[in-house]
Amino acid sequence: MVQGKWTRLVVVLVALVLVAAMATTAGAQSRVRLTVWGRDLPDDDPAHAYIREVVTTFQAKNPDIELEYIALGDPGIQDKVKVSMATNTDLPDIFQTWGGSTMGGYADAGRLLDLTEELESIPTSAAAKAAMSWKGKTYGVAPFFAIAGVYVNEGLFESLGLTVPTTLQEMEEVADKLLAAGYQPFALGARDKWPALATYMYLVNRYGGMEAFADAQARRARFDSEPFVQAALKYQEWVEKGYFGPTPLGEAYGDAQLLMATGIAGMHVTGSWMNAQYSDPGFTDQTLGFYPFPLLPGGKGKITDVMGQTDIGFAATWVAADKKDAVVRFMKHLMDPEVIAAEPGRISSVPGVVAPSRLTQMAADVFAQAEAVQFWWDQDLPPNITTPLNDTILKFFLPGADVRQALAEFEELAEEVMGPAAR
């Protein structure tokens, strides 16, 4: 009898273990797997604090979702997305994007998941929402926005008796005085090509207003029309004067940052993503400020015309259609103010989030006053002409280059890709 009792007990225990195992397996199988491609590692790098917070807290708050976050770096994320979108294979559920027409092209090709209704109630800025929308449909969210402005070494300016320029003439006068005192007026990083774009965008705007690029993009005007040429000639003039140093094409973006950090350069026209680094006393002991790009008296551009785009954005692809609930939960988590608070420098697109530094607040103030935001041209034009665009701008740095001819050649390419412009 005793032996039979123990036999029955063992059978019962084995049955319970099997049931528990089966339940665990069923639970694991019922978890939704969400694959996300991003740029940054969720590591201890202060610049990656937001992504680390996103990954760790989302998994903790959503145990029924298995998050597979894959960091691809930059330009790795852009290259892999382009290939996958072109072949319509190996697509993730969600991918990091800067929005604009590049994302719009993916939408036109049927590669994205329409989340217009699901994301309608998420608080965000109008510019961020516009960046993540295309032809009236919303495909994702952008928790942070970046704008280009002028980082100024305020301590150096004070020591030389300089004031922050508000016009292009004043900017040139400041640059001349910096040169005379032995400083490099502008840090840039032209060797990496894309850093030269922001200055050119502002110069074109100050000469021709927001409509200059808008008309060329819509093919109502040409990319070698007068605002583009005048801006290129001004850029070339600054290069020849030495405003970007003796060998600007040998200076990488990292070099430009160090020139500002060590007080060798006085100004840096770049994006507000530098706020965290330029606020970090471990990186620089210089006192830096963020200011709007100066006006051109008599020009069409306004101080409220700002160049910028999403700093971090995420969009969903069509392969996630059957797990939309998980996708929306992740999108909402990206926009959670408590999660965004981990970010050390970017401008938040979510209203009410306190800026983490003086520099971020200064950039946020410039952004708040913007009446028009022009997305980065190399994100807002068709992908197959963006590299030639940046290559064209670098020709302005070559001694004796014919900038009008360089722009005419780019216009020829634009006509092949985008159609002829109105004459």
Question: Secondary-structure map with pairings?
Answer:
Layout: H1 2-30, E1 32-38, H2 49-61, E2 65-71, H3 76-87, E3 94-96, H4 100-108, H5 116-119, H6 126-131, E4 133-134, E5 137-138, E6 140-153, H7 154-160, H8 168-180, E7 184-187, H9 197-208, H10 210-217, H11 226-241, H12 253-261, E8 265-271, H13 275-279, E9 288-291, E10 305-316, H14 324-334, H15 337-340, E11 347-348, H16 358-368, E12 372-374, H17 377-380, H18 383-394, H19 403-418
Parallel strand pairs: 1-2, 1-3, 7-8, 10-12
Antiparallel strand pairs: 3-10, 4-5, 6-8, 6-9, 6-10, 6-11
Helix pairs in contact: 9-10, 9-11, 18-19
Count of structural domains: 2
- Radius of gyration of CA atoms, rounded to a whole number: 26 Å
User: Mind telling me which CATH architecture of the largest domain this is?
Assistant: 3-Layer(aba) Sandwich
Q: What is the helix content?
A: 40-55%
**What is the mean pLDDT?**
92
CATH topology of the largest domain: D-Maltodextrin-Binding Protein, domain 2
Beta-sheet strand percentage?
15-25%
What's the tally of helices?
Answer: 19
What is the number of E strands? Answer: 12
**Which geometry do the CA atoms define?**
globular
- By CATH's scheme, which homologous superfamily of the largest domain applies? Periplasmic binding protein-like II
CATH classification, class level of the largest domain: Alpha Beta
Report the major sheet. 10 strands, mixed
* Low-pLDDT windows of residues: 1-28
Distance between the termini: 104 Å
By helix and strand content, what is the structural category?
Answer: alpha/beta
